[in-house]
Task: structure prediction
Amino acid sequence: MTNKAQVKVATAAYPLDWFADWREFEAKQRAWVAEAAEAGADLLVFPEYGAMELASLGGDNVAGDVQGSIRAVSERVDEMNALHGRLANEFGVHILGGSAPVEDGARVVNRAHLFAPSGAVGHQDKQIMTRFERDEWGVSGGGPLRVFDTPLGRIAILICYDSEFPLLARSLVEAGAEILLVPSCTEALEGYWRVRIGAMARALECQCVSVMASLVGDQPRIYAVEENTGLGGVFGPPDMGFPPTGVLAEGKLDAPGWTYAMIDRAAIEAVRADGHVLNMTHWTEQAERLPHIERITL
Result:
């Protein structure tokens, strides 16, 4: 496997549309992939629940119903995956497709697929559900965390809320992850910032790069994704080899389109080995401190 030292990533602020037929969805996906590929991107990241627009193919009654929308999207996932596989091969890019609620036996999971131009494909299930997913949608935590060995480096995926839990990211970087993809779906600005803060904190703690994609805009006819806010962003540790803010690139709030950044894998290796601080190396020192908490009354 030939590894790229410099990886250009495109991360989406992606608006949901309403489609009359499958051809409209396919045309939209092709246009988005083509635009990023023509800009030189190696890795394209679509957001959490980006597949929910497929519910529109079932009509208003289906798309506006909790179980109907899940079933309509789940039934189209294989077809969507085949499309993304073809596009990855045609344009020579890696694609993280928009995640979808997928019926997996007796449960429903939130699943995102990663496609390589070689035709290889893998998936990552969301681990920890938000209150809405648990209580209203009935979505469950899915399969194990995974690290994907690719020519672009070792990539892992933390879907939205998962990025807010540091032990998940830590387990991935201990398994070799260099780049964390954070596809997200957030209704309000505070939700966006929770995920962004999580993505930036994970980049700091793990001395890696995190790539956040967002759903944007309103689609009142599709259950659960009626309102969306966010932007694309790429974040690293605020240390040597990276911007002082840790922000490699960010789009404009709620403005649809791609945000691009160059990821220098050598910079990740260098900051982990000899940064001004060594968060990744010093992580284990926390454990020896925890049993020694003293409670003092003043």
The chain has a mean pLDDT of 96. Residues 33 and 87 are 7 Å apart (CA to CA).
